[in-house]
Amino acid sequence: MKIAIISHTEHYRDSSGKIRGWGPTIKEINKLAVVSNSIVHIAPFHNGNAPDSSLSYSAKNINYLPLRPSGGKGLLKLSIFLTAPHNLYMIYKALKSVDFIQFRAPTGMGLYVLPFLRLFYDSKYWIKYAGNWKDEKMPLGNKLQKKWLQNFTSKNTKITINGFWKNERNNIIPFENPCLDQNDRKLGRNILAAKKLKKTVEFCFVGALNNHKGVDKILEALKCLNNKDIKYIFHFVGDGSQRIDFEKTAKLLRLEIVFHGFLAKDSISNIYSRCDFIILPSKSEGFPKVIGEAMNFGCIPIVSDVSCISQYIQDGINGFLIKPITSKEILKKINLALNLTYSERLKIKKYNFELAEKFTYDYYNNRIMNEIFKLKSK
User: Fold this and answer.
1) β-sheet bridge partners, residue 125
2) What angle do CA 11, 105, 358 make, to 5 degrees?
3) Which of 331, 124, 97, 108 is nearest to 232 (CA)?
4) Taking Cα atoms as reference points, which of 77, 136, 67, 156 lies closest to residue 111?
5) How far is CA 166 from CA 50, 53, 137, 263, in A?
6) Strands 300-304 and 277-280
7) How many Å apart are CA 64 and CA 42, to the nearest integer?
8) Are the C-beta atoms of 320 and 337 separated by less than 8 Å?
9) What is the pLDDT of residues 283-318, one digit of tens each?
C-alpha cells in the first residue's frame, strides 16, 4: 500500500539539516509507515528554526514533499489562493503513483484540495477531520469544508471525525486520535503502579498558552483556591503570544506555578508522571491527544464539556467536565477533584489507563487497515 498524506503540518530544517515537523503528526505518520510500503507526506515548508515540539521522520519509507505555506490573518489569507496553482501541481505529480490518499482537514488549502480530490480521485481518498465537528462557532473556512464533506463527497469516500454523532452519512465515521505507542503503555503502567498519595498535589496544562485554551480562566480560578492546608504545583506546558501576560498574573498568586514552554515528548511524559490531574478548559476542541496521554500516565482529567469529550469522560465518574467554561466552574471542579479519596483516585486512574488503549497507534492502525483500506493489517 503506497499512501500519500496531504496536510498543513509545518515543516522546518534544523541546525543539522534534517527536516522536522509538528511532533504529534510526524509520530503518527512514522507509526503508519509500519503498515504501508511507502508514504509521501505533502505539507508546507517554513523558513526558521524548528521548535522543540517538532520531530524528524524515523521510518525510511517516508518521503517529504514541500508545499508553499499560506494563510494567516487579514490579507495574508489571500495567500491560500495565490499558492494554490503551485501546490496543486505538486500534489498532482505526487499522487500519480499512490494507492490511497489521506487529506487532513480542516485547513485553508482544503478550500481547493477537497474539490480537486473529488474531481480526480473519487474512490481512493480518505478525509481525516481533526477539528470539532459540532463547533457552532467554527471559522468560515472550516464551516465550508464541513458542508462540503457532508454534501459533496462520494459515498465511497471515508470521512473520520472525533466522536459519534447521530444523523450523519454512513461514510462519516467516529475515529480515535492516536498518541500512544507500546513504550508509552509500558511506562504508563509502571508510573501508575508507583504513584502514591503525596502531600503536594500537582496539576498540568498542556497546549497553546492563550485564552481560547482557557489559560486565563485557570489563573482566575486559582486566585480563589484555598491553599492553607495543601501545597499545590501547577505546570503549564506550551507557549504562545500571551505567555508573558500569564506569567505576570501567575506571579501575583501565592502558588507554585511553572511555565515550561514547549517540551519534547519524553519531558512531557515526566510532567504527567508527577501530576495528579490534567486541566484543559478549552472553548473548542476535537478530542485533544493530551487527554489520552495524560490518562495513560495516571492524570485524572478536568476538561471542558465540548465536542465528543463527554463520550469518553463522564463527569464525576472518570474525570470532571467543565460546563460552562468559567473560572467559577473550574474552581468548583478542582475542589471536587481534591475531595476524592485515595482509593477513588486509584480506581479512576486504573479505569482511564484501560480506556487509553483506544488512543494507541496499534489500535488506530488496525482500524485503518480494516475499515479504511479494507485490508488485513500486517
Assistant:
1) 101
2) 95
3) 331
4) 77
5) 41, 36, 20, 38
6) parallel
7) 6
8) yes
9) 988 899 999 999 999 999 999 999 999 999 999 999
